[in-house]
User: What shape does this take?
Amino acid sequence: MGNRWVRRRAVQASRAPRVRAGLVGCVLAMVVVAGCGSSSPDRHSAVTTRPAATVTSTTSTTTDPAMAAVLAAYRAGWAAYEQALGSADPQDPGLGATMVDPLLQRVRANLLGYQHDGIVGRGGVQLAPRVTAVSSATATVLDCMFSTSKLVYADTGKPVPPVTPPEHDGVQSTLILTGGTWKVSQQSVTEGKCPGGS
Assistant: This one.
């Protein structure tokens, strides 16, 4: 939901040309906040009209309905961030459906900058999230995300420097329950390193 998903979606926002998460986070980070390659909601992705990436997940399903709902919301945040990054669209409806401030505000600001600079995201992320804490109103998700996302100039398709090779990134996201729906509110990404136990 950094520069590679995430979509730092969340994650988002520390590396310029990587398309991550975090949904700042990506949004969720959303946006995302970081990822590998450069698809996080940082400010260096270009504008395009096609989907940016494919989000896949390797996390097994859980029988606990609350945990399953949290994981589904986390994944949805990254998917929304990647979709918005593919066209550098800060008003993509998926962002507001999966993220809340402060992450939503960061992700939209990053996407607006990318749009201005003619930058969009390409590539994708593979998620492996796990819920580490859940209460009636908040949840924490840790992920060891692998990203092949990158930022490119929309008009030429050339990568935005510096180009970072695909890598695993650690993502920590906070989700809150609002109006009966889990949404990503905060996301941080540790590039090149996953949290212990991931």
About this structure: The chain is about 20% helix and 30% strand. The two ends are 18 Å apart (CA to CA). The longest strand covers residues 167-178. The chain has a mean pLDDT of 76.
